[in-house]
Design a protein that fits this description.
CATH class of the largest domain: Alpha Beta
CATH topology of the largest domain: Dihydrodipicolinate Reductase, domain 2
Number of helices: 11
EC number: 1.2.1.38
Catalytic activity: N-acetyl-L-glutamate 5-semialdehyde + phosphate + NADP(+) = N-acetyl-L-glutamyl 5-phosphate + NADPH + H(+)
Distance between the termini: 36 Å
Radius of gyration: 19 Å
Number of domains: 2
Strand content: 15-25%
Main location: cytoplasm
Structural class: alpha/beta
InterPro entries: AGPR, AGPR_dimerisation_dom, AGPR_type-1, NAD(P)-bd_dom_sf, Semialdehyde_DH_NAD-bd
Family: Belongs to the NAGSA dehydrogenase family. Type 1 subfamily.
Order of helices and strands: EHEHEHEHEHEHEHEHEHEEHEEEH
Length: 338
Amino acid sequence: MVGIQVAVAGASGYAGGELLRLLAGHPELEVVAATAYEQAGKRVGEVHPQLVTLADLVLQPTNVDVLGAADLVFLALPHGQSAALAAQLPEQTAIVDLGADFRLADADAWQRYYGGEHAGTWTYGLPELPGQRSAIAASKRIANTGCYAVATILALAPLIAAGIASPQDVVVVAASGTSGAGRSAKARLLGSEVMGDLSPYKVGAHQHVPEIKQASRAKTLSLTPLLAPMPRGLLSTVTAQPTKNVTAADVREVLQDAYGTEPFVHVLPEGQMPHTAATFGSNSAHLQGTVDIDSGRIIVVSAIDNLGKGAAGQAVQDANIVLGLAETAGLPINGVAP
């Protein structure tokens, strides 16, 4: 049986390859086109040898003629490249953009963190936020989340919404695997540079800060991103000032109330901390909350697979909602270990 037809632009990258992997096992979606720029003309199997069932699919040039026949298009392109292509696609074509082009509502924030012209704002693709699932279902243009953003928002947004954490002076330290920096060759991402090292980057000016603030309602937020010596995975440690005396049990109760019925967000048992390997290959987020016994600050630790819930998995989850399919269709909840 022919499924709903989907296409992937930017299929040669890490996020694009993960999209193809998830789509290859999806019960309702059929990949009818995959496109690339420099890798156009190659077989998928040459670029992503792990994708055996899609190995003979040829990567085509990225243009509207190739993509426009699909019912839904995933744009897994570098930031700033989605808007021009999206504007050429038919109005009836549903689009999930994995880039940042349409995430921000504030044009000044776009200019400050990304530069260039602000393309506009699409429906934000994080269904676990209150009211967002219905907004996604009613839309055909979805702005997928950033990887640091989704891990941090899931940890922070319920605390601010419940009134137990101040939206001021939020501090986040988060470490991500190297796949989060994309597949383009960069000296700082060579194995010899990364292995045995842990290094900060974009300190004080990471582009996911305005996205996190917009979705979580934080007012001031400091994010220190770290490059971890691993291919994939992301661990975000979020600390916030309490608005009143709270206990670890209070923090956990707020998180449980927010995510108790969510299929992909899991508040771990008391005393069990998240770690990235447990989310490997899944679309799940693992959370744990506590209170620092010295400072009294609330601490929530969040682990995801940056290519899963932080990119391709989240995009398929959004596509499922847009297309009226089961939200969990084609998406692993369990991780792969060791």
